[in-house]
Task: structure prediction
Amino acid sequence: DAKTTQPPSMDCAEGRAANLPCNHSTISGNEYVYWYRQIHSQGPQYIIHGLKNNETNEMASLIITEDRKSSTLILPHATLRDTAVYYCIVRVAGTNAGKSTFGDGTTLTVKP
Amino acid sequence: ETGVTQSPTHLIKTRGQQVTLRCSSQSGHNTVSWYQQALGQGPQFIFQYYREEENGRGNFPPRFSGLQFPNYSSELNVNALELDDSALYLCASSPPASLPYGYTFGSGTRLTVV
Result:
């Protein structure tokens, strides 16, 4: 699986949009981009995924560049409960999905 | 719809002992993966089970082994525990992987080796 690069930390004001970048310059054509977050050493929580089109769900939006070498997770109106470590990973789908490589993620701190 | 359940939540073992951690996958999920997360680091992939067989393994020694049962629940066994095995062990399940679903993680088992 391709590796990802994320900034170690970011701050965001409550109520503002949080934009979390991820670089995955070695991504393969059949690899999806996934985002998870982890709060207080609980298990990671799935947020969103995409292949090449932008995606939106009730939690967030995912913007993937046309060359697929980077992406941005957008939390449109961050709340204090969004303070967490955010992980961007890339992996193939299918029964041979196997190894998912998590980096150290981005620690997002939402401030009042 | 139940989520992923792991047991026990916390465990203290002595160096050299053996430990078994358990995971019940989410209903309808037939693929289970195990991860080790040291303090301050991201989860590290240990191995994945699909249809009761291991079908992917990370960079972990053979003393880390697992099982998946017909009901898709799973066990992680670690023999000859070392101090560095102290970590949060996470289990994740996913549905039949014809589509790129995200994983559902359990809350983990905190293992302390003394």
